[in-house]
Amino acid sequence: MEPIRVLIVDDTVIVRRLVTQVLQESPDVEVVGTASHGRIALAQIPLLKPDVVTLDIEMPVMDGLQTLEELRKQWPDLPVIMFSTLTERGAEATLDALALGANDYVTKPSQLNDRAAAVDAVRSALLPLVRHWGRFRQASRTGAPGVPARPAPSASITMPAPARDAQSRTVSAVVIGISTGGPNALASMIPQLPAGLPVPIFIVQHMPPVFTRFLAERLDKTSAITVAEAQDGMIAEPGSAYVATGGHHLVLRRQGTSVALGLDDGPMENSCRPAVDVTLRSAAEVYGSGVLAVVMTGMGNDGSVGAGAVRALGGRVFAQDEATSVVWGMPGHVVRGGYADAVLPLGDIAAAIATAATSNRRPVGMRVS
User: Fold this and answer.
1) How does DSSP classify residue 271?
2) Which pLDDT score, from 0 to 100, does residue 361 have?
3) What are phi and psi of 252, to 5 degrees?
4) Which of 180, 281, 306, 331 is most exposed by smallest CB count within 10 Å?
5) Burial, 150: exposed, middle or buried (Cβ in 10 Å; 0-12, 13-18, 19+)?
6) Is 249 known to be catalytic?
7) Among 40-54, 79-93, 235-249, 273-287, which stretch is predicted with the lowest mean pLDDT?
8) pLDDT tens-digit profile of 287-340?
9) Residue 295 β-bridge partners
10) Beta strands of 115-271 (E only): which ranges?
11) Which residue has the higher pLDDT, 308 or 112?
């Protein structure tokens, strides 16, 4: 198989050299060029024909957002990975970039003067994304089956329930697990949820600190329900959604007749913190069969074990379908594991949540096994 061709766009020499070194270590990746700002990058793309572009945000002449807008006009299907700083400006601009059509993002190493740590960070965070999107691009160009360049919506698929009839299960809380493609999927789905939803919603989006605060604020501005970043000790309220805080697992605990949110700094699970599996397990402990797990677009398998725990206690599980997922890793593992009550296109998920949450209601803090 031909190597993945990468163009690195960053105004900092040390970053370009670092990323080039790490990517070139991999025999299946070739760095075909570098650029110090967007105008140079746009001129190089037709000459170098990269499979993936890594794109900085803050650059002179033409910054990352301007570059992305122009790039998408000419090359709508060329994968772009934003490589941004872990700052408020970096977080907000990255969310803007995802809305403009960036495929993914990764944060730059915080300590560039510690070369060994920086190399490890790029190797573990950026290289897997380059491989994933590079192979996706190559397969899309060659028309390989099962890799559509632009997924089309599909009809809902009802899965046979391995436990009792799904429609009879009362929902007391919703847990949404999501990763790659998540910010845009949530921006589409959460505003469709009606005001007055009688249950709380817990959202676990794989994101670093700072990013999750901006994500929650953006969703809150466009939604009928209240959306906030989770804080330790918050009491879960019906009609509100809580975004797991980057860098912490979101856990739920009984507090009298209420349910309190907790931030846990325990080890990563599935290479993630927050991890969907952690929140699903704690939700199952608190709400029992009242949990509705919704596993959406994302790379990897986080959420599959937690979905199994939810089903074991009689809860319900929805999975996003492959056609409308940016990456059908997380929901695909749930479906293949036999845990999904239904596989739904993105456009049907909000209505399905609302219908499930308003049927056969019971008090939010009560566990029913």
Assistant:
1) T
2) 55
3) -115, 140
4) 281
5) exposed
6) no
7) 79-93
8) 999 999 999 999 999 999 999 999 999 999 999 999 999 999 999 999 999 999
9) 177, 319
10) 157-158, 173-178, 201-205, 226-229, 240-243, 249-255, 258-264
11) 308
Q: Which CATH architecture has domain 157-357?
A: 3-Layer(aba) Sandwich (3.40)
206 has catalytic annotation: yes
Please identify which of the residues 11, 277, 302, 321 carries the catalytic annotation.
302
Q: Domain map of the chain by residue range?
A: 4-142, 157-357
Question: What percent of the chain has a predicted confidence (pLDDT) above 70?
Answer: 90
Look up 179 and say whether it is catalytic. Answer: yes
Catalytic, out of 172, 179, 223, 304: 179
Element spanning 182, H or E? helix 182-189
The architecture (CATH level 2) of 4-142 comes to 3-Layer(aba) Sandwich (3.40)
Q: What is the pTM of this model?
A: 0.89
Contact 76, 83 (CB under 8 A): no
Domains 4-142 and 157-357 share a fold: yes
Residue type, 328: W
Q: Strands 29-35, 173-178: parallel, antiparallel or unpaired by DSSP?
A: unpaired
Considering the candidates 37, 206, 248, 333, report the single residue annotated as catalytic.
206
Q: Taking the CA atoms of 25, 29, 33 and 37 in sequence, report the sign of the dihedral they define.
A: negative
